[in-house]
Structures are given as structure tokens and as C-alpha cells.
Amino acid sequence: MRVLVCGGAGYIGSNMTAMLTAEGFEPIVFDNLSKGHKAAIHNAKLVEGDLADHDLIVQTLQEHNIQAVMHFAALIEVGESVLMPLEYYQNNLSNTRTLLSAMQQVNVAIFVFSSTAAVYGIPERVPITEDMPKQPMNPYGETKRAVERLCHYQSQTGKLRYASLRYFNACGAGNNATLGEDHRPESHLIPLTIQAAMGKRSEVRIYGTDYPTPDGTCIRDYIHVDDLCKAHLLALNKLKEQSELVYNLGNSTGYSVRQVIDTVRKVSGKDFEVVETNRRPGDSAVLTSDASKAAAQLQWKPKFTDLEEIVTTAWQWHNQHPNGYED
Question: Which helix (DSSP H) or strand (DSSP E) does residue 175 occupy?
């Protein structure tokens, strides 16, 4: 099967591309390289283009005889989305509509969408199940939720079979620790903490130490990128028999900010400065997933369930790529 991987030069997209190749698929990467890295693609075919370009998408789908599309090409920074809502609605919603329109034009019906736990907002309770209210609190979450609704209505026409996969905190380095996180600027806790351990940052900040958690810091659900990608493969296969799939993807286990920092210290053998500061607006005390639906329906079971094991893969990659990808 030939699969178009939109955003395939990015963190999760590049790992997905590598896994597709290893599993006998033929991935074609579609990326404008605004956030991704050519060096992360390895030997996959790259079409350099933007998802706003309807004609180029149609041409790519036709020329490469694409049978399914995976979409990882969103802007992902919550804080940035609040400052730049127009850009987020354009890239995350308008461009996805353009992609779906191009798919409809050439009769490509299979679509796997990279969604997010941000569609839930601050949940009523944890762990979060798929049927809980969707109350996103920022443009990032709103645009992802809008795409989910668009996919739902398009699937009702019989012209789309889709899976919406709601990630919790993607992390680690995949493909035997050869494909890691290289966001510029970086905003994710594990790579930020690793950079501090490597002496590339002067400190790590803890935003809030008075939450109602065992150590006072926020608790999040960390899911290894290899486990995420495996769920995409399983969902892709499941779309042969169902037209609409929605799953949470997480470990269902939470780790606090302090636990992440302590784990990086243990794995790296390095110490670094930690600065405690005020809470950030909108941060929930605890966000963990109930991923039992994916486990039951996809027979999906994460392999990386231990935080130390996850951090070790990230530490290996960052040490092999101290300056990130060299494009």
C-alpha cells in the first residue's frame, strides 16, 4: 500500500514513515519543511509542498497512486496558538479541508488523523475516556476538534473512512532511538530537561508546585512515539472494516514534572538547575488517558510503559545528535 504521510519530516511523521517502510508499506512524504527535517526522512520519497496547494496534492495523490493518507502536518504549540489563532486555523483546519477535498476528487478514502487530548480541555475527571465532553480551551485544541467533526460529517457521505487518534504526551526517540524530537524552539518537557542535562540550557522551569498531586507538580501521560505509530498501523488496517474510528492513545499512567526531572537526572547522571515558578493559565493538575478502547478494538498494547525506558531512548538520540538534525 502506498501511503501519503503529510508532515512526514516532523517528529511523529518521520517515525511513522520509518515504521511504514519496515512493515512493507511504501510511504511518500509530503512536507513543506517549515518544521520538519530532511535528515529525518532517510530514504523515503519526498514531495516538498504545502497542504494549501490543492492542485499539488491532487497531482501527488495521482502520480504516486496513493491509497491512504496519514496527517501529521499540524502546528502544535498551545501558547503560540493563542497568540496566532489565524495561522492555526489556516494550517490546521483550512489546509486539512483542502487535503480532504483533494482526496475526494481522486477517490482516496482512507485517512488517519493525528489528533490530541487537547480536544477535551480541562476534563471532568481522569482518566479521560473518548466519550467525555469536548471543551477545548485554545485555538490548537479547537482546530483539532473542528477537523474531527469535519471528518465525521464527510464519513457520513460514504466518501471517507477515517481514524482520529487523540495523543496524550508523545515522547522518546523511535526506530531504535534513531528518530527523536527536534522542535525549534523546543517546548516539550523531556527534551527541555535533557538539554539542561547536556548543558545546552541553563535551567529547567517547573510551572506550579502547589497542585493537588503527591509532589505538587502537574501529572501527565507520556506515550512513546513507537507505540503511537504502532497504533496508526493498527487503525489503518481496522479502516478496512469500519469507516469511523476514534481512540485515545496514552499509557494510562501519569508521571509528574518532578518525576520526569528526576528520571532525566538518573538516566543522564547529570545535575542541573531547576527553577520553581508560578502556574501557567489553563494547566490541569492531572491529565491521563483511558486507552482501553484502543486496547480492546485494535489489540494495541504499548511496549514502552516505564518512564526511565522512554527517557533513555530520548537521551540516546540527543547525545547522538547534540545539535539536532543536520539538514
Answer: helix 174-177
CATH class for the domain made up of 2-171+222-249: alpha beta
Q: Would you say residue 282 has pLDDT above 90?
A: no
Interatomic CA distance for residues 42 and 14, integer angstroms? 9
Residue with cell 489503518: 236
Number of CB atoms found within 10 A of residue 305's CB: 15
- Which residues are catalytic, by number? 140
DSSP-derived secondary structure letter, 92: I
Structural domain boundaries of the chain?
2-171+222-249, 174-221+252-288+296-320
pLDDT band of 211, cuts 50, 70, 90: very high
pLDDT grade for 56, boundaries at 50, 70 and 90: very high
Please enumerate in sequence order all residues whose Cβ is within 8 A of that of 16, keeping only pairs 6 or more positions apart, or say none: 5, 8, 27, 70, 72, 229, 232
Q: How far apart are CA 258 and CA 274, in angstroms?
A: 10
Q: What is the pLDDT of residue 12?
A: 98
pLDDT at residue 115, as a whole number: 98
The CATH label, of 3.40.50.300, 3.90.25.10, 3.40.50.150, 3.30.1700.10, for the domain at 174-221+252-288+296-320 is 3.90.25.10
pLDDT attached to residue 327: 73
**Minimal CA–CA distance to 28: which of 55, 11, 50, 9?**
9
- Cα separation of 327 and 57, whole Å? 24
Report the distance separating Cα 180 and Cα 310, nearest Å. Answer: 11
Distance CA 206, CA 188 (A): 12
Dig out the grid coordinates for 167 from the structure: 495523543
What number of CA atoms fall less than 13 Å from residue 281's CA on the CB side? Answer: 5
Name the DSSP class of 286.
Answer: E
pLDDT tens digits, 2-24: 999 999 999 999 999 999 999 99
